[in-house]
Design brief:
It is built from 1 helix and 39 strands. By secondary structure, it is mostly beta strands. It has a single domain, classed as Methylamine Dehydrogenase, Chain H. A hairpin with a 4-residue loop joins strand 25 and strand 26.
Length: 499
């Protein structure tokens, strides 16, 4: 794979790649006391995995514990990208492939939410992938490490795997075919260990989502997809709302907010009760919501054609605090994989004319437009590759299936700074930060984002600058998102798969 770098100076590139977003809503989990739940341990074959290492012709099966780890000078983000026949792990700065694994069938990928792992949706299971990058708090600074990526044989199995959600340090996976969901402590994810889960079932099988909080309470969508309910740690229902037809697309906000989209607005759980925010239109489906750290405003897709044939050319900005929904036109079609949030909460939208729109979250005003791709058209089948975007701080990763490329856009510079050529057609993508995550990493401290990171070269206390500025991978700083952002665009709707 060839990589083409822009002519930016090293200093500018370092500045662009150093800013990052950290996961923001995780905590330690307690076991719920719901009589309908049970401890479930998934099969752990821990089989040797085939890893492909760049130029090596042979694939050597290795044990996870046999991989060498290396300390780095700062966070080392990696991209996990699916394609027809496999999944690749790329360096988040150079876009060079550092791991490539065969996998069959249509593949989906979601960040696990712990800053290191991802889940590959494959057949009837969520399969754990170790991206091989992580951070560990140490006093008032962080240490950063990398190792070879590994697609494990560790799975959580069920009927029609759909959603992965990370919240309060707990990962939850949802199975559409049964309405069952499993949850687990994110800090326990390990390529060498089976995943120990608790499980429960919703009122019936449906295309839905569940969120488990650190006190054992749970948010569930309803079987008929008319809304959602909230359950306490004892399994008792404490609130229910059935005013959200076509419920879809969970996202978490500050102060315990959980929001889901409806065919006529957004349903918000504020930590105590449900509130419905209407669009005022008879049909105006908001099927996917995208949060920004610390902001009560969610970015949503916005479809007004009930038959699904009219392209979406407006986005919704949903203010859960004021109860208002603002729409903003982007004048060109987009789809569910084309929405993300910027470092200051900006709404980012990639449209079919190849432009990246940067929109103020509060006013809906367009702040800038960047020409990133040639004009393209969304394929008829939602499983087919189409451009997708993911963010990490000031960086936007843009897949270009037609050209078999990935572009890295620096929002500060307002241009593409790296273009990587791929040997495959990219489909889905997530960014794995390689940073400590609140509620997941031991000794996590919010101040780590502003304190110094450990210089990985001498193991002493001679620190670089801030945690946002000390990645020295190939002389460039970088970081990651799920895209967490958690990123919740894994929301296939069985009607139109627009998530």
């Amino acid at each position: 794979m060839n990589t083409k770098m822009s002519t930016l100076t090293s200093l500018a590139l370092i500045s662009a790649l150093a800013l990052s977003a950290c996961a923001d809503d995780n905590g330690d989990a307690e076991e719920p006391e719901d009589g309908d739940t049970e401890a479930v341990e998934t099969d752990d074959n821990s089989a040797d995995q085939d890893t492909e290492d760049g130029d090596d012709a042979e694939e050597d099966a290795i044990e996870p514990s046999d991989r060498e780890s290396h300390e780095a000078g700062g966070p080392q983000p990696r991209l996990v990208v699916t394609y027809d026949g496999g999944v690749a792990v790329l360096d988040g700065v150079s876009t060079e492939v550092v791991g490539d694994f065969d996998a069959e069938g249509f593949l989906r990928v979601n960040g696990a939410g712990d800053g290191r792992h991802a889940f590959l949706t494959e057949g009837d299971s969520f399969r754990l992938l170790d991206a091989g990058t992580w951070g560990e708090p140490h006093g008032e600074h962080n240490h950063y490490y990398t190792t070879d990526p590994l697609l494990t044989d560790i799975t959580v199995d069920g009927d029609t795997p759909a959603h992965v959600v990370a919240h309060d340090g707990i990962g939850t996976v949802f199975f559409d075919g049964s309405g069952e969901y499993h949850w687990f402590d994110l800090e326990d994810l390990d390529a060498e260990s089976e995943i120990e889960t608790e499980s429960a079932e919703t009122e019936g099988a449906h295309h839905g989502v569940a969120v488990v909080l650190d006190d054992g309470s749970r948010f569930e969508t309803l079987e008929d997809r008319s809304g959602a309910r909230f359950i306490d740690a004892d399994g008792e229902e404490v609130a229910r709302n059935e005013e959200c037809p076509g419920v879809h697309g969970e996202a978490a906000g500050p102060e315990g907010i959980i929001a889901v989209g409806c065919e006529d607005g957004v349903l918000v759980w504020d930590g105590d009760d449900f509130e419905k925010i209407d669009t005022g239109e008879e049909f105006s489906r908001i099927g996917n919501l995208f949060p920004a750290e610390g902001s009560p405003i969610f970015l949503g897709d916005y479809r007004t054609g009930e038959d699904g044939e009219e392209p979406m050319t407006e986005v919704a900005l949903v203010n859960a605090e004021s109860g208002e929904i603002t729409t903003s036109s982007v004048d060109s079609p987009y789809n569910f994989r084309n929405l993300q949030r910027g470092p200051d909460g900006e709404a980012l939208v990639l449209t079919e004319d190849g432009q990246l729109h940067i929109i103020d979250e509060e006013t809906g005003e367009h702040l800038d437009h960047l020409q990133i791709l040639d004009e393209w058209t969304e394929p008829e089948e939602w499983q087919e590759p189409r451009p997708a975007i993911r963010t990490s701080g000031d960086l936007v990763y843009v897949t270009d299936p037609d050209a078999q490329q990935i572009h890295i856009v620096d929002l500060t510079e307002g241009e593409v700074i790296v273009t990587g050529d791929l040997d495959f057609v990219p489909n889905e993508i997530v960014v794995v930060e390689g940073r400590p995550v609140e509620g997941v990493s031991d000794e996590y401290d919010d101040d780590h984002d502003d304190d110094h990171d450990h210089d990985g070269e001498d193991h002493g206390h001679d620190h670089d600058d801030h945690d946002h500025d000390d990645d020295h991978h190939d002389d460039h700083d970088h970081d990651d998102d799920d895209d967490h952002d958690h990123d919740h665009d894994h929301d296939d709707d069985e009607d139109d798969h627009d998530h």
